[in-house]
Amino acid sequence: MAAAAGLRLRGPLVLRCGPWRSFTSRTDGEARVTRVLREKFPRASAIRVVDISGGCGAMYEVHVESEEFREKRMVQQHRMVNQALREEIKNMHGLRIFTSTPKP
């Protein structure tokens, strides 16, 4: 549309929903999603949540390592995470899910 109006864009288009943040600090959304996952997966050996939307809470990447996933197919594991986050997902634009079982 910009090209049609005679405007020229330079460089990549960068969308920001808030000020950039350091990835060493946690957002309130990351803490909330982590808390929900810890409650739903008490046997999890590792949970990592990263707001990949720049800090505004529109999109998250979650990594959950839990014994509860053992002998379940990946689609079943991801459904378990989706179910656990069903209320939080209502306010998200997107969610990347990575699941695994602990190494013996």
Task: Write structural notes for this entry.
Strands 1-2-3 form a three-stranded mixed sheet, with helices on one face. 27% of the residues lie in helices and 22% in strands. It has a single domain, classed as BolA-like (GMP Synthetase, Chain A, domain 3, 2-Layer Sandwich). The N and C termini lie far apart (54 Å). The chain contains three helices and three strands. This is BolA-like protein 3. Its main location: mitochondrion.
| N-to-C SSE string, H for helix and E for strand | HEEHHE
The main pleated sheet reads as:
3 strands, mixed
* CATH fold assignment: GMP Synthetase, Chain A, domain 3
Q: Largest beta sheet: what is the strand line-up? A: 1-2-3
CATH superfamily: BolA-like
What does the radius of gyration come to?
A: 17 Å
Query: How much β-strand is present in the residues?
Result: 15-25%
Q: How many H/I helical runs?
A: 3
Structural class call reads alpha+beta
Level of helix content?
25-40%
Domain module tally: 1
CATH architecture tag:
2-Layer Sandwich
Given this structure, which CATH class is correct?
Answer: Alpha Beta
Shape: globular
* Number of E-type strands: 3
Extract low-pLDDT stretches: 13-23
Mean pLDDT: 84
Primary descriptors:
alpha+beta; GMP Synthetase, Chain A, domain 3; 27% helix; BolA-like protein 3; mitochondrion
Produce a short descriptive summary:
The chain is an alpha+beta fold. It is built from three helices and three strands, in the order H-E-E-H-H-E.
Summarize the topology.
Blueprint: H1 28-40, E1 44-51, E2 59-66, H2 74-84, H3 86-89, E3 94-100
Parallel strand pairs: 2-3
Antiparallel strand pairs: 1-2
